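for the recovery benchmark. tokens below, seq after
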């Protein structure tokens, strides 16, 4: 046999035997710690000599955790099992318990304790728990609104989030594709522009190679002399120019070899200004620095700068000797921005010495004018071109019109040369995206990067031969503004759908909640004993079916009540109620009860002198008064035997006051008989006297009879003795006699 097992219901656990094993003791201790106040421990003990040693430890743990502990003696369970169960059920520990732990002897399944354990009411199934029911604050209508709103909200929110996520990803793919296409278009356009610059410069230098200077190389001093009229004759001017040229040549020959020689124009033998090594840059010759015109006497050069006014400076550089061979510059631009050729000669000195590739590009600043320098390889040295960067690339200006995108030209060393945005160069300079773009093994691609706390979508395209890279990017906050606008519209739409759903559910909930509320009210009326309620189904759905079933139920209850009322006229109402509920088992069972007998004195002689109708009316009036006294004290009228009454207490619902209640009922019957005799005296009927006998002890209670007719009654020696005691009233001249067994139960409760 298992020492620990569960009963049929999970709320009751049985631990056996009484001296718990270590495993069972630990399980019970864990249950006490877990359930605390929600646990009731019942110790079923055979007698006081069999108290287990572990009970004190269990009691201490229960008191510490707030669990309930009750001791049930086997003798009490044998004498009055119903009373024991009623006492357990009425206790405070049971009302708050949600689980019961029973500590029982090892043979509990072979004696009366098994019946007691099987009849233990499950926690939570008592009338007290039913009376403690508290309705929810949320009605069905409110729950429907909440559930529908929650479902619609979750559904729409999920749809919006998924749609926004997919739309955002799709938009990002499209934007990156457009971004990359824009970078490619700009790169192709820039490549053509650079090729056009190279072609124009080479064509110009090739043209002047076959052209003789035809324009006068006038200086600012000569112009002033011509205006004032003090200029010497043309012959002296020519002689002066020849002397100056010879002096410059002889001065250059006297310089050490470590210094750069002043290059000369190989077509005109005129000095080509080379910076600080040139005679024009010496402190002693400040005016000569401004004497030579930018076209150098060539009409093609003058026309070139007039047609291409953003070209600032063109020079040919001997890469081996690092000498300036030729230089031409835009006089009109220089005068407008107060520039001179020396500004660009200094830029030539800062040009990276390793710029030996077919094309090199650098970003410079000539005074306040941003400039781009291009270096092209040639057969006679490198061709250096400086152009104004602010208005050079038409492709960048067109890209600027797109609004969302910024275009940047990146040099091989990661410098931003040109940007379509005025502040784009400073914002992008030094960002990690430049290193990623320059170091990329492929010539195009797309990236995401963060710059100054803003996320950007970037695409790049490398120029084929220039070593340059076009970077096109767009700020995600501006790009996805349409996505956020759609999300806001979806939220507005969700709000409208929710409002519509709430309205529809509210209207629909009325068709559901109103019938349910009516059913609840009708159920309350039925619970109070009013079976005359009438409600009609308003729909044909499940609520209508429930209403129809409720009507059938009320009719059945009404018929049952009529049967009970009619049945109660022949048997005790308590017996009728229990019989209808099926609580009275076939056969008998041992109970401890109090049996009562009463009988009228000299009733036979009285009945012989009167008509049968008068006798029946007389008895009915007498029985009505006596039965009321019995039932008012919890007694069950067993039967009427002529003018005698048999009743009993404690056989249906045992209680600790059954014996005292029987005696109180007899005393009330004595007083009621005095009142009834006063009425009979007015009617000319002689007064009545009765005798009552009461005995307490074991009885057999149950349905006794034949298969065709059964009767709930009690039998046994206790019943016979009660009848004999009632008969002794005639001998002793008394009206109420009780046995010694009854006297033991009520000693000290009544005065003799």
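predicted aa per position
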């Amino acid at each position: 046999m298992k020492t620990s097992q569960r009963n049929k219901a999970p709320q009751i656990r049985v631990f056996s035997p009484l001296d718990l094993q270590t495993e069972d003791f630990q399980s019970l201790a864990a249950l006490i710690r877990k359930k605390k106040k929600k646990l009731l421990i019942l110790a079923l003990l055979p007698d006081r000599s069999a108290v287990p040693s572990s009970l004190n430890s269990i009691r201490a743990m229960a008191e510490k955790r707030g669990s309930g502990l009750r001791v049930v003696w086997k003798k009490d369970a044998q004498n009055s099992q119903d009373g024991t169960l009623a006492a357990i059920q009425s206790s405070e520990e049971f009302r708050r318990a949600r689980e019961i732990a029973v500590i029982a002897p090892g043979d509990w399944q072979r004696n009366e304790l098994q019946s007691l354990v099987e009849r233990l009411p499950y926690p939570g199934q008592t009338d007290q728990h039913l009376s403690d029911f508290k309705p929810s604050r949320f009605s069905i209508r409110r729950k429907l609104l909440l559930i529908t709103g929650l479902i619609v909200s979750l559904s729409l929110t999920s749809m919006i989030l998924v749609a926004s996520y997919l739309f955002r990803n799709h938009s990002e793919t499209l934007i990156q594709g457009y971004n990359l296409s824009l970078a490619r278009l700009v790169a192709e356009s820039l490549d053509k522009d650079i090729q056009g610059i190279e072609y124009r410069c080479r064509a110009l230098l090739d043209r002047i190679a076959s052209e003789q200077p035809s324009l006068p190389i006038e200086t600012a001093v000569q112009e002033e002399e011509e205006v004032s009229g003090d200029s010497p004759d043309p012959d002296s001017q020519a002689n002066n120019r020849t002397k100056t040229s010879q002096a410059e040549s002889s001065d250059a020959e006297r310089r050490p070899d470590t210094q750069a020689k002043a290059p000369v124009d190989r077509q005109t033998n005129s000095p080509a200004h080379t910076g600080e090594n040139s005679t024009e840059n010496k402190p002693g010759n400040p005016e000569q620095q401004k004497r030579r015109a930018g076209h150098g006497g060539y009409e093609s050069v003058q026309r070139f700068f007039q047609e291409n006014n953003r070209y600032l400076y063109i020079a040919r550089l001997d890469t081996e000797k690092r000498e300036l061979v030729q230089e031409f510059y835009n006089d009109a631009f220089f005068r407008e921005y107060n520039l001179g050729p020396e500004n660009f000669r200094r830029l030539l000195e800062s040009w990276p010495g390793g710029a030996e590739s077919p094309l090199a590009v650098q970003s410079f600043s000539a005074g306040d004018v941003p400039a781009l320098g291009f270096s092209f390889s040639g057969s006679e040295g490198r061709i250096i071109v400086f152009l104004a960067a602010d208005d050079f690339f038409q492709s960048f200006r067109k890209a600027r019109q797109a609004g969302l995108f910024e275009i940047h030209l990146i040099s091989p060393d990661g410098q931003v040369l040109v940007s379509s945005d005025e502040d784009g160069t400073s914002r992008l300079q030094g960002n990690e995206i430049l290193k990623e773009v320059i170091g990329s093994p492929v010539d195009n691609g797309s990236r995401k990067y963060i710059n100054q706390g803003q996320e950007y979508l970037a695409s790049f395209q490398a120029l084929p031969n220039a070593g340059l890279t076009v970077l096109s990017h767009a700020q995600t906050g501006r790009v996805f503004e349409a996505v956020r606008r759609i999300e806001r519209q979806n939220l507005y739409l969700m709000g409208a759908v929710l409002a519509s759903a709430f309205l529809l559910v509210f209207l629909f909930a009325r068709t559901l909640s109103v019938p349910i509320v009516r059913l609840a009210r009708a159920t309350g009326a039925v619970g109070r004993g009013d079976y005359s309620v009438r409600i009609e189904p308003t729909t044909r759905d499940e609520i209508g079916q429930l209403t129809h079933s409720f009507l059938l139920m009320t009719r059945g209850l009404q018929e049952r009540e009529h049967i009970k009322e009619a049945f109660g006229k022949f048997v005790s109402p308590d017996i009728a109620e229990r019989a209808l509920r099926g609580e009275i088992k076939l056969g008998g069972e041992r109970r401890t009860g109090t049996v009562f007998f009463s009988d009228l004195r000299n009733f036979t002689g009285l009945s012989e002198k009167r008509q049968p109708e008068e006798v029946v009316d007389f008895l009915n009036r007498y029985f009505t008064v006596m039965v009321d006294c019995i039932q008012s004290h919890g007694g069950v009228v067993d039967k009427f035997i002529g003018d005698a009454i048999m009743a009993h207490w404690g056989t249906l619902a045992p209680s600790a006051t059954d014996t005292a209640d029987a005696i109180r009922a007899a005393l009330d019957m004595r007083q009621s008989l005095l009142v009834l005799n006063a009425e009979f005296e007015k009617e000319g009927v002689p007064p009545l006297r009765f005798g009552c006998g009461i005995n307490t002890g074991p009885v057999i209670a149950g349905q006794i009879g034949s298969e065709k007719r059964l009767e709930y009654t009690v039998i046994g020696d206790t019943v016979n003795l009660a009848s004999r005691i009632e008969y002794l009233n005639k001998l002793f001249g008394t009206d109420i006699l009780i046995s010694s067994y009854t006297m033991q139960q009520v000693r000290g409760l009544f005065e003799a």
